[in-house]
Amino acid sequence: MSDGNVPRQADSGAIRIGTNALKRKSYNREGVFAMIDELFIRAFKAHQQQGGVFHRDSDRAHEVFQMSTISALSQGLYDGEITYAQLAQHGDFGLGTFNGLDGEMVAFDGKFYQIKSDGKVYPVDGSLKAPFAVVMFFDPTVKFSSDDETDFKAFQHAIDGAVPSKNLFYAVKCEGDFKLIKVRTVPRQKKPYPPEVEVAKTQVVSVCRNVRGTMVGFRFPDYTKGINVSGYHLHFLNQSFSAGGHVFDFVVSEVRIEIDVVSNLHMAVPESGEFLTADLSKDQTEAIRKVEKNKDS
Ligand SMILES: [Zn+2]
Questions:
Q1: CATH number of the domain enclosing 189
Q2: Mean pLDDT score of the chain, rounded to an integer?
Q3: Is 199:287 a contact under the CB 8 Å cutoff?
Q4: Which end of the chain is less enclosed by CB atoms within 10 A, N or C?
Q5: Given CA atoms 157, 243, 105, 204 in this order, what sign does their dihedral have?
Q6: Would you place residue 26 in the very low, low, confident or very high pLDDT band (cuts 50, 70, 90)?
Q7: How far does the centroid of ligand 1 lie from the alpha carbon of residue 148, in Å?
Q8: Ligand 1 centre from 9 Cα, in Å?
Q9: How far apart are CA 231 and CA 160, in angstroms?
Q10: What gap in Å lies between CA 21 and CA 33, rounded to an integer?
């Protein structure tokens, strides 16, 4: 960090990174990545000094809140009890779905959106319910940007290489110019609900090209398999609020990435309905991988 080309920190951890910042071929532990590392280490230390819990005000704990489990969703438990009005008490940033698996939810900048299989985006009424959702009050401590073209693999690789621990939770917001982004939404299901692998056969996959937009999501540790999607889970909404969904792949440039390091997970499950009698002992790892990552093996 001794040469004069190192960008100076602008505000609260914000830093602008020069060329090739996120390209896989440029990945190393030197230069710009050392700077991302430093940002993470600083954020991590601040996090530890606060005892891991930032209570910004009396009722906003610095925690990830999740409703139900990804395994339960995978098995077809598509009706939850929690309303979006209740969910909003736990966060206004995150992702999820709706009762009956009626599309994809993405929330950021204090607003919730529903992306239905008709390809349209709707504001979320507080009375709608969520069988599965992950939300928090986003308070990013690591911010960086890059002009360069980055794909999903390089994006994951860059962040994975910089995080101080793979065993914490990371909330991610990424705004950029998407050369392409492959997203899916799912059509509303009727009872008896089929498992998600069956629903995936009728999912609507679209590729948006040359759109500016925002990806929102989380990186969950491997040890949370079955509880949540391990690794990255991102949802997307374009700038004109007309398209989006669950992210399978992308190529982005002019990107600004913000990350919140979190060590608290608050999980709630339904207190009535099918959840109480469902057999949730089965390993859903492969089914989840197929549905969430669009991978067969
Ligand atoms: Zn999703």
A1: 3.30.1330.80
A2: 86
A3: no
A4: C
A5: negative
A6: very low
A7: 26
A8: 33
A9: 9
A10: 7
In the reported structure, the alpha carbon of residue 246 is separated from the centroid of ligand 1 by a whole-number distance in angstroms of 4
Rounded CA-CA distance 102/28 in Å is 42
Q: How remote is the CA of residue 247 from the centroid of ligand 1, in Å?
A: 7
pLDDT in tens, 215-224: 999 999 999 9
| 119 inside domain | yes
pLDDT of residue 161: 82
pLDDT at 125 over 50: yes
Gap from CA of 20 to ligand 1 centroid (Å): 29
CB contact set of 125 (below 8 Å; sequence gap of 6+): 84
Alpha-carbon gap, residue 31 to 151, rounded angstroms: 21
Q: How far is the CA of 29 from the centre of ligand 1 (A)?
A: 31
236 C-alpha vs ligand 1 centroid, how far in Å?
Answer: 9
Which residue type sits at 132? F
In a domain, 59, yes or no: no
Give domain status of residue 140, yes or no. yes
Name the residue with tokens 């395994």. 71
> How far does the centroid of ligand 1 lie from the alpha carbon of residue 117, in Å?
13
The alpha carbon of 222 and the centre of ligand 1 are apart by a number of angstroms equal to 17
Query: How many Å apart are CA 77 and CA 167, to the nearest integer?
Result: 28
Q: Give the structural domain span for 170.
A: 64-293
Greatest CA span in the chain, whole angstroms? 64
Q: What is the DSSP string of 95-119?
A: EEE-GGG-SEEEEETTEEEEE-TTS
pLDDT digits 0-9 by tens, 243-289: 999 999 999 999 999 999 999 999 999 999 999 999 999 898 999 88
Nearest CA among 89, 104, 93, 97 for reference residue 131: 97
Report if residue 24 sits inside a domain: no
pTM of the model: 0.85
**Measured in angstroms, how far is the CA atom of residue 12 from the centroid of ligand 1?**
30
CA of 96 relative to ligand 1 center, distance in Å: 6
114: tokens are: 């529903």
Helix, strand counts (H, E) of the chain: 6, 14
